[in-house]
# Entry
Amino acid sequence: MAHCLLKRPDLDILATMPNPLIALLVGIALLAILAILFWPDRGLYIRWQQARRMSARVLREDALKYLYTNELEGRPVTLQSLAGEMGISLNQAAQLLAEMTRLGLVESHDDAYDLTDTGREVALQVLRAHRLWERFLSERSGYSEEEWHARADEAEHFLEPEEVEALAESLGNPRFDPHGDPIPTAAGETPTIQSKPLTQLGPGDLARIVHLEDQPELVYAQLVAEGLHPGMEVLVIEKTPQRVRFISRGDEHVLAPVLAANVFVIPVPKEQAKTAIKPLGDPLSSLKPGEEAEIVAVSRTMHPAERHRLLDLGVLPGAKVRVEFSSPLGEPVAYLIRGALIALRDDQAKKIFVRRLSPRSGNGRKKVGRALVEGAADQVISHQ
# Structure
């Protein structure tokens, strides 16, 4: 009888059925995998699609910016030049241009490509977001000056129009970015400045820096290290195929032509020569304990966020300052300014210029001799 029961067909079927608990767990696992992949707005597939679309948008907007900057400089954009600039293959560049043509952003003329009105409008809005974000980084962040451009390159594609306008308003609707580039308005208007590279000046020419080109990054980093900034007035005293030498506020600077070509200037009346190259003063760091001075300027080369903080603390032109004491390691040093003690590092104190009110002592600042400064200015004025 037992042998017959084991051979019953219904028991054979039961024996081959999966364990209900295991089947339930497998089903739950499959549902979980499907949810992870296809959950609305959060699923991996949706995110992959969004990233793919974002990548295409970034590529398209970068291409539009490139077309716009070349348009301003009167240079044609070809398939080959776009591929080289974007770091993509010719096939990818051709697909990109075909897509932008289909969207009405560019049009072709004799193997070159130009922006349409719609394409120019999009390029200007991306450029506006980029330059406003650079201004934000310069004034409100702790990032170094060399980082601003790369970080703005990333942020410009993610800022929505309403966020861009809110950013502009919070910054006071600035007209220029920290490098001196004009910021397009919300209406797409861009002020133009008729500047020229420093390499086009000759000995005796006086000019004001209005823009430092931030690409390539290595060149820009060297200009920043040299202490150059928009608003700085320069008097060229020597120009050769190997170097451009100039004076600014009593300091001598020497640049190789490849660096000087990224410094853009506008002419300044030569009557201003003596004022332009007159030293700002002695660095605050050159004062000894007990010495007193009057602040005459805070260098523009100081990080803007740090500069604003010091100005808020009363480190202003005209304020009296006295060196109180230094820490055992030499820095920071405590300065009495407007009745308050302010501790400053040496690199900060070097960028605050003062006029001594107590006997002058020597300092290590590299300066052009007074006779050379005054002689150069007199030479400029005499050649008017």
